[in-house]
Amino acid sequence: DAKTTQPNSMESNEEEPVHLPCNHSTISGTDYIHWYRQLPSQGPEYVIHGLTSNVNNRMASLAIAEDRKSSTLILHRATLRDAAVYYCIRTGGGADGLTFGKGTHLIIQP
Amino acid sequence: NAGVTQTPKFQVLKTGQSMTLQCAQDMNHNSMYWYRQDPGMGLRLIYYSASEGTTDKGEVPNGYNVSRLNKREFSLRLESAAPSQTSVYFCASSEFSFPDYGYTFGSGTRLTVV
C-alpha cells in the first residue's frame, strides 16, 4: 500500500508547465509529502517536500491543498531532461524508509 | 562528489552462488537502506539500518542479509542467489528521524541470476 495515488503517465510539451497530481486522502497531520524522480537507468532523486504550505526550490514547486488530501508538483518549464518517473510519497519522517508506488511516467515531447 | 557509492554496477550470478553488494555514503547520515526495483515497478525496501549498530527488515527481506559495518558502509548479501532475485538494487541514506531531509540514492547495481 503506497498510500498515494498518481496517474500512470502524463505527456507534455517542451518549455510548457507541467502539473503532476497526487492524492493522499488518508494523510495524517504529521505526514510530509515528498516528491522524487527517477531518470532512466538512474536511482531516484529528491525533488521537493512539504507539510502544509506551498514550497518552491530551484527544481520545482509543490502546491498542497488546504485539506492536505492532495498535492501537485509543478515543473514551470519542462525540458527533455525532465522526462522521468515521478513518485509522490507521504512519510511520517521516521527512519524506516520510504514507500514507493509506481509513480507517474512523464513524457516530454519536443 | 558527495553521495552514495554502490559496487559493483553490474553482476551476473549463477543460481546458488553468493555475493555481497557494497554501499558507502560520505554525508555522515545515520540511516541507510537497501531497495530492489523490478521492471515497471516502484522500489521495495529490503532492509534498513536506522543507525550504526541496528538493522531491521523491510517489505521483502527473504533471501537477503545485511551488515552495517560502520556509519559509512551498509552491505547486502545474497547467500544463495535465485532467479527471482534478478533486479536492480539501490542503496540510499538519510538523516535519522528528520522528515525535512531527503534521501540520497546510489546509481544502482544491476544483478542477473541465471
Pick out the low-confidence regions of chain A: none
Order of helices and strands of chain B: EEEEEEEEEEE
Give the C-alpha Rg of chain B.
13 Å
Q: Describe the biggest sheet of chain B?
A: 7 strands, mixed
Number of helices of chain B: 0
Strand-residue proportion of chain B: over 45%
Question: Can you count the beta strands of chain B?
Answer: 11
Topology:
The complex is a heterodimer of chains A (110) and B (114).
Chain A: E1 9-13, E2 18-23, E3 32-38, E4 45-50, E5 55-56, E6 61-64, E7 70-75, E8 84-91, E9 104-109
Parallel strand pairs in A: 1-9
Antiparallel strand pairs in A: 2-7, 3-4, 3-8, 5-6, 6-7, 8-9
Chain B: E1 4-7, E2 10-13, E3 19-25, E4 31-37, E5 43-49, E6 56-57, E7 64-68, E8 74-78, E9 87-94, E10 104-105, E11 109-113
Parallel strand pairs in B: 2-11
Antiparallel strand pairs in B: 1-3, 3-8, 4-5, 4-9, 5-6, 7-8, 9-10, 9-11
Can you walk me through this structure?
The complex is a heterodimer of chains A (110) and B (114). With 110 residues, chain A is mainly beta. Chain A is 0% helix and 45% strand. Chain A has a five-stranded mixed β-sheet with strand order 1-9-8-3-4, with no helix packed on it. In chain A, strand 3 and strand 4 (45-50) form a beta hairpin. In chain B, the strands form two sheets. In chain B, strands 2, 4, 5, 6, 9, 10 and 11 form a seven-stranded mixed β-sheet that branches. In chain B, 35% of the residues are buried. In chain B, strand 5 and strand 6 form a beta hairpin. With 114 residues, chain B is mostly beta strands. The chains are: A mainly beta (110), B mainly beta (114). The interface between A and B is medium-sized, with 25 and 31 residues.
